Amino acid sequence: MGGGSSAIAPEEQSNRSCEKRSKKSNTSSSTCCGCFSMDGHYSEDEEDIEKRTLREEARSWANNFERLLRHNVGQKVFQEFLQAQFSDENLRFWIEAEKYLNMTEEERMKRAKSLYEDFVSSISPCEVSLDAYHRNQIEKEMDTAPKNLFKNAQEYIYCLMYRDCFPRFLKSKLYKRLCR
């Protein structure tokens, strides 16, 4: 390659820039950017890794309902299942009650009424399956909107979902497909 200029083959340029990125990120793995290993062999596809990881996570939900509810994908899949069963209002209430726990006093004062109207009121289009005791307990404290206003009702709904919806979810095609 005469003429004084040093021409570099495109593959070599790509490898050099990839090596630079690898050195900058201080990774000790043999892959530089996730697309191929430094020795020229293709590494496992990221999508395959994500699927395997999600499959393992989904399998763990069978023994841990709380983990299912706390996992972003788990919560979405469980909600999708409940929507197909026309019973996702309990999960939506549980999620909103979780958010309510972390609100400031001012935010709680605003949100308490809408949560009551959306889920607790007997005339709500999305009424959750609360007994009279829990409904009355909320109604008594609505004006002050304490942090724990929905806590007992949330725990009650959690138990209902755990005993009724969760076992059906674990038997569903949706869950089984996720575990494959």
Automatic annotation (TrEMBL):
| Record Gene3D superfamilies | Regulator of G-protein Signalling 4, domain 2
Record Pfam families: RGS
All copies of domain RGS, residue ranges: 64-179
Q: Which PROSITE patterns match?
A: RGS
UniProt xrefs under SUPFAM superfamilies = Regulator of G-protein signaling, RGS (SSF48097)
Which segments carry the region annotation Disordered? 1-30
What name does the UniProt record give this protein? Putative G protein regulator protein
Q: Which organism is it from?
A: Clytia hemisphaerica
